[in-house]
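Loading example: each entry is read as three labelled lines plus one structure line.
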Amino acid sequence: MHDRQGQGPPRILVFSTDKISDPAIDLAGLLKLHYPPTIYTVIVPCSSGVKPRWIMHALARGFDGVFIAADGTDCPYSPACTEHTGKVVGRTHEIMKNHNINPSRLRMAAICSVCSEAFVRQMKKFHADLAEMQNKTGEENQE
Amino acid sequence: MKEKIGVYICQCGSNISDYIDVNRVRDRIKDCPGVGLAKITMFACSDSAQKEMIEDIRGEKLDGLVVASCSPKLHLATFKSVALRAGLNPYNYVQVNIREQGSWAHSDRPADATDKAIRMIEAGIARVHLARPLEPIRISTVNSVAVIGAGIAGLRAARELADMGSRVYLIEKDHYVGGRTAQWTDLHDTEKSGEEIISDLYAEIDRREDITLLTGATVKGMSGSVGNYEMEVELRPRYIRPEAVEERLAEMMERCPVSVEDDFNYALTSRKAVYAKYGTARPPGPMVDRAALEKESAFLAEYSDCIDLEQKPEIKKFKIGATILSTGFDPYLPPAGEYGYGEVEGVITLPQLKRLAALHAGGSLSHKGKKIQNLVFIYCVGSCQSEGENKYCSRFCCTAACATSLALKNKHAVRQIYHLYRQVRTYGKYEVLFDEALNQRDIFIKFDETDPPRVEEKEGKVYVTVRDLLTDGEELEIEPDLVVLITGMVPSSGRARVAEVFKAPLGRDSFFNEVHPKLRPVETVIDGVFISGACQGPKNISESVQSALSAASKANAMVSRGEMELEPTLAEVNPEICLWCGECESVCPFDSVQKVVREDKEVARINQATCKGCGICTPVCPRDAIDLIGYGNAEMESMIDALIKRGEDHAG
Amino acid sequence: MKEQERSPKMIHDVLVIGGGIAGEEASLNLAHMGFTVLLVEKDYSIGGKMIHLSKVFPTLDCSACISTPKMSETSRHPNIKIMTYSEAREIKKSKGLFEGKILKKPRYVDEDSCTGCQLCEEVCPVVVPDQYQYNLVGRKAVYIPFSVALPKLAALDIDSCIRCGACEKACPAGSIDFSQEPEEIPFQVKAIILATGYNLFDARKKADYHFGQFKNVIHAMQMERQLVPTRPYNNVLRPGDGRIPDNIAYVLCTGSRDKSVGNPICSQVCCMYSIKQAQLVMGALPMADVTIYYIDIRSFGKGFEEFYQQTASMGVEFVKGKIAQIEEKENGNLILHYEDIENGGKPVTAEHDMVVLAVGLTANSGITAEFINQEIALDPFDYIKPKDRIVNPALTSAEGVFAAGTATGPMDIPDTILSAGDASAEAASYIRRLE
């Protein structure tokens, strides 16, 4: 497994949703609410449609963290979206554990279509936490 | 794999190129495998740039198109149409958002924004490489529109839609139409009263066979998809026997023993438990306040020929192609104690004042037995709260306050009105009303939000103390007969439930949110769900009507042609791999998964007509046999690769 | 003038007069509903005033990003026929239909063969002030009106042309045609939408502000042009000496809420565009101070108050005070006299090195004179008066004639779009009722 932890600023892959969370991320840009530029977005229709294998692929290729910007209760498709997305995350966490990957490298939070501040807050926190994880890993490696 | 992809990097004037080094981006992109040409353009969306792309696609025989510009929410359709006009299948086009999620989001770090843009465009190229041509799905549409809420916006939208040729279901949760306009009696833009305008519109609605008006109606659910929604509505009864004789009804209303607060008059008066909302309320006829009357068995027995408490709610279902939400607003209700409201006698709100004036038509005003000659208006109550929840300006209130002030002096023998304001926002021609208020010697006093007026009761009298910024902060004490809080608009209390049923998102101000204030002001992100009137944000009556008719034209254009095109990005099952387990069926919100037998094997099949392309079924398949078209493993993983690939080059 | 018989009558459902954002929106709505539209624009290009703006409040979207795709969509919709540099004339109603003529003015460039290559512009020796840049810079006598003009074709300004023939020689397509004459083409429609927009208040009428005399006093559209991506100087500069200003004043209500200049009403957009420009100026000139002198800040629309508060928190100074007079110092700086209302109302002065006059909007309803047997009523401010502002806000006093956007009064862009949508709906249902 490719592991680039500890090199440069953490890179985060965000799965955003076309109608709900991606508009919030756009709005963050419009309002010039800055967040780390090593955060990349891939849009899907619904957060419940994110496959665990994509997340594992992203982590394997070098992303330090994956964030699912979930539809939550605003989901235009399913009232059970939070539950479905939660299951995706739960299953992926299991796979991560089996591969000795720290499950906290995958997070999800509901981001409503105007929750740009919440998004930026989540990103800054996740980014900082991942950086701290890198440092720890770095220290452990040195020991 | 594509061989000749055209990549266009938009400068968006300078919105992108001020932060992102577009030349560097182009230099990095132009040699990517499969890229036939990479160009920088000032405005990719301009007509000349579109024409250039079309010429390039045709002349250079491009087989894929990537435009790196703004959010696809703005111009995906624009560039899909470019591809289509050039003879390129529009699904061979990908838009990369290097503005909202590039130059703007990272305007503080231009070099990093440039690096991010390169990666994002490479991901777009990777996606185009794997894109396959698709044809939109053509569906037939029902030329019917549901209008939710029969206030002024809903009534007007309904009438216009019917005239434009659409069938209309006008759904009102109240038992009478007219909403807030009916309560606003005196209007400055017209000679007619609010009640008259509503009655006239009702008569027109009633005359049109293509409009079905459902009052006492609540939307229970909406299923299906744009062009073919099915709506379920619950109709609550009025508990009045349809065969009841008019004289008996009149007598019954007269003799009803129970009285309750009249919410039409904002609790200034009381009404009977058998009542019509107001004298000329439409549809005509009384209704029974069941909860208030239930225990009056003697009365109920006496009028059993009129009242029938056994009437049951009824469920109605019908098909519509689109829906317009016009659920309006609620007046801001000050919490007890805000400027003495609810605690000090003689403090009311603007909507209450309007009712008070209507109740004293043509005469002097009195409130709780006290003659009203001097009033204090306090502006911006519940609006422009820098600390509170309602940060927004409610738009109509300054004008409404000035207009009301004129009417009070002209028609109700009011002597003086003190306007305690922060900024007078009688915009446009409404300035005339402010000017007239000054001319009739109203007194305007400007206060600061951080030092608001104080309303106190001393020995049974109301006193207002205010520091006037226009006279160097002098503190004034006024002893009015009535204090009127010029309250703003808040989203209607019912809108949360409406939002839930229709999935229409709310904005930062909690009103319904449009897709874009200029490009798509009456549309929501949900296809076929439009918003109009004050449910989108504060508006006066005329502005609500303009927005309602705007929505009506959009809805009519959407459904009246009988057919429309839908995105073909639906789920598909690979029957070679599928071993039917039913997992996908169990999560599908639209019952679009069917079990079929194919070559002696049970497999899942997706119903194209009902699938909405959400992809919820794709991660649950234990054999990874389902993909969403356009979001397959290969596409997603190649995009991920592109986003991270050059990480090694740049890290550290 | 060419003989009429040669031009066959143009028959459409709706005539839309004015190709600004209101006219485009109304035309597109009608076209989407299946009606045919004749869109007539008096200028060389559609796009109206909006296309010349930089960014728009309160989202700070670039104006071109909203305008140009709408222009493009309008121009290629099969149901819409656009005639630019044309005016509707002699409109009369007979048997329920409107008839009249479209005057197609000569642009002295053949529209079919011109490719917009701009070679003519390069060789033209004449330089006159560029009206599309609000006279900040010059243009040639033969020229492409502006970079995103639609149609993007050259036009020859015959009044400034010296007939040297250089353009004729340079044009590879032979498109220069001095023999063009005005043409009149008859039309017949069922309904008309007036979307003729507004005029900017002429700042010279406010004599105490000395616009046109003091070089560093400019009006807001000139500032707007200095802030667009395609800006003439590529920076914000004082016209007087080309220096970068560092202390800019905005004078709100220039020509609005002002009976002395004959415009007592509020122009509805100036507060917000000034606030927006203040934000853009702070972006372009981070070291500059910006002060906005106002009577009331009217940030009343959706998201406006929030935008105003954000701007105030960015450090733009808001001073309540009506500017009485402006004086010029020798170095080109300007002294503003005003009553400091929030500090006792004392008369005070302030010095700025550049002043932007937030000019208001005035009516542009001359088109109503072209109606022969119909009266289109105007309000006291010469805007087109709605017959019933509450129930039918777009309907004019003449049945079948509707008005959209700022033709009916001052309005911002979101309101204009809704007003245009309204006009299209009222026109559509009117036509359906005729049928």
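Chain C has a mean pLDDT of 94.
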